[in-house]
Amino acid sequence: MELPLNIYGSAVLRKKAEPVEEITPELLELARDMLDTMYKAQGIGLAAPQVGKSIRLVVIDLSKEEDERNPIIFFNPEIQFEDDDNPSEIDEEGCLSVPDIWAKISRPSRVNLTYKNENGETVEMQNVSGKLSRCIQHEIDHLNGVLFTDKMSIADKAVNMGKLKRMAKKQ
Ligand code: NI
User: In what helix (H) or strand (E) does residue 39 lie, and over which residues does it extend?
Assistant: First the structure.
């Protein structure tokens, strides 16, 4: 079931989300609904606050084609940055909660990641790089009330200020 998306200016997007204590059938249904919502909007990642739930739940699917879907559900995802020899990378980002704005964002290229999967098992991923690294960093920012617009360059902030103000006013 598709869920309504919260857009830039909604208070829930600025709250720090609560950890998930227990993975219940209701939460698994929420995760499936988040995936439906994400696929419909042609996104690659979605965090629970974007559908109005202030909990630490993220879904990601980086597959390009509908018949290759490969969703990952992350409960309580945490990243550890590798501090040595971990250059930042710049790439373009957008967000389903910030429609029609894209900007180049700098982020650490590699992260180590831990989360609980849908079976409640702890999963550890070392040296996550590329699209998954960028996407999980963007989504975990959502769980901490941070949006990619906060990380835009001063020039991009200036260019998009009017659009963002109009967006926020409608919420
Ligand atoms: Ni986003």
Answer: helix 25-40
Whether 48 and 103 have beta carbons less than 8 Å apart is answered as: no
Going from the Cα of 94 to the center of ligand 1, the distance in angstroms, rounded, reads 7
C-alpha 83 to ligand 1 mean position (Å):
25
Per-residue pLDDT, averaged over 16-25, amounts to 97
**Residue 135 included in any domain:** yes
Residue 2 lies inside a defined structural domain of this protein: no
The CATH number assigned to the domain holding 111 equals: 3.90.45.10
> Is residue 159 in some structural domain?
yes
Q: Could you list the residue range(s) of the whole structural domain that residue 101 is in?
A: 11-169
Ligand 1 centroid to Cα of residue 44, in Å, is: 9
What pTM did the predictor assign? 0.96
Residues 6+ apart with CB under 8 A from 159: none
Query: Is 139 designated active site?
Result: yes
Question: Is 3 part of a structural domain of the chain?
Answer: no
Q: Which tens digits make up the pLDDT trace of 90-130?
A: 999 999 999 999 999 999 999 999 999 999 999 999 999 99
